[in-house]
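Methods — Computational structure assignment.
A single polypeptide chain was analysed. Its primary sequence is given first, followed by the predicted tertiary structure written as C-alpha cells.
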Amino acid sequence: MKKFTRSESKFIFFTLFILFVVSGYNFAISIRRGRDSIRKNDIAAVQGALDTYFQKYKVYPDATEDGLIVGCFENGPVLDEKTEVPINAIPCVWGQSKFEDLRSIPQDPNYKKGVSYYYTSSGQQYKFYIALEGKDEAEYTKVIADKNLQCGTKICNYGRGN
C-alpha cells in the first residue's frame, strides 16, 4: 500500500481546509437568514393578533416606552362602560404572554443576547419593528435604521404597520 507524499498530503489538507472555510461561511449565512425569516414570520403573526384586537375593541393596544404591547390581561379584559376599551390591560412579555390568538407573543431569536421587538401605537395606528441581522436582506430599511429605535441591544431596521 502506497502512502501519500508530503506534498500530496499538504495539497489534500489545504483543499479540505478551503472547503471547510467556505462551507462554514455559507452555513453561518444560512443560519442568519433563518433567524431573519423567523423575525419576518413573527411580525406577520403579531400583525394578525393586533388586527384581531382592533376588531374586538376598535382600538390598537397602547405601547410602553420600551416598545412592549399593552394588550395582555391577567384575568380577562375589563371594559370601560362608555368606550368598551379594556381598562385593565398590562404589558405583554415577549415569549411569555398570551396575546389574542397567539399562545405566547413571539420573541426575537436572539433574545438571550438582549435583542427584542419594538412596538408603537397611537390607538388608531401602530408600527412594529424588528432588527434584521442581514443588511443585504431585501426588507432592510435604512430609513428605519436612521431613526435609531432600540430593538433591545440592536437598532431596529425593518418595520410594518397598518
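Note: Strands lie at 62-63, 69-72, 90-91, 118-121, 126-130, 150-151, 154-155, 158-161.
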